[in-house]
């Protein structure tokens, strides 16, 4: 039996993956925040405390909460396994100098699994290696090529955004390739967990998409499991056509119940980086959305032909009509971000007002700062549990972005 079981966006969450951000948020500095894809420097200690409020909501509603950093620690095997992981991680971080690679290995390999995992996820600063033995190389004699970068081996400050590197799809999973190189470090960690932790991904869990360095990119925030038959996926600035095609073929031929993958054409830009920044499901028949996507919504419905070939049908219709048809619902309740006010919808969408996490039908977790959207949800009989957002929202992702359900109760 598969350890992954997600056939909806709103079934009661039974098991969910998160990452507490205190380890790596200290790597966000004024001169590195753009590289780290974070809007501002972050008070890491407070972000960790705010994240604890988030995970307590999950536990209070019956979910088993598992942490990426704990799974990573447990996934680490013998010296050969750790070196293989480290070689892949350093290559993804563009560390090609053999002497530097050996020095980093000399620093990490004597550590316990606990310290190894947390040091990798925190990043290694150049000063940490000052007393670590390394072979001589020309880089020792020449000026530092990156004197303003304090890191010898980088981390990703987006480990907290567990939605994107991998994605639960029915009884299967994806490992994703990112547009931004910094985030591909996350997938190396996720891949090691996937391959070595059978209580996370049992042997019958198929990979519907793998982290191919030479393939097009796809990110989990663009994947939405609308029903056991329908998957929505955003064609965003980060999820590209070839990857969508590969994913759709794999998902529809996996033996799972999915019959259709619906591509949502969404605006391209940082504010709308994924489908779940403009559209999320909050109950069986209720959805929150950003009004800016409503004009001329374009959908491409992908199905498999008789010979297994992928077929695409273009559809242009209103969001409510499309959802009723796709999900066989008599009516749907569309709840606009910030109640539909154009100014405040832009304001709260920027701070992830549309990025709600449903943890049961009609029960959602949101950021406290988006109070206009929260009020609108409440008026539509959706129970809202809020998380302090002063620090967490600087990383540009809300409660859905910060989590990956592994098991949801069937509706």
From TrEMBL:
GO terms for biological process: L-arginine deiminase pathway. GO terms for molecular function: arginine deiminase activity. It comes from the Bacteria. The active site is at residue 401. Keywords: Hydrolase. The keyword Isomerase does not apply. Its EC number is 3.5.3.6. The keyword Chaperone does not apply. It is an enzyme of class 3 (hydrolase). Belongs to the arginine deiminase family. This is Arginine deiminase. It comes from Parvibacter caecicola. The lineage of its organism: Bacteria, Bacillati, Actinomycetota, Coriobacteriia, Coriobacteriales.
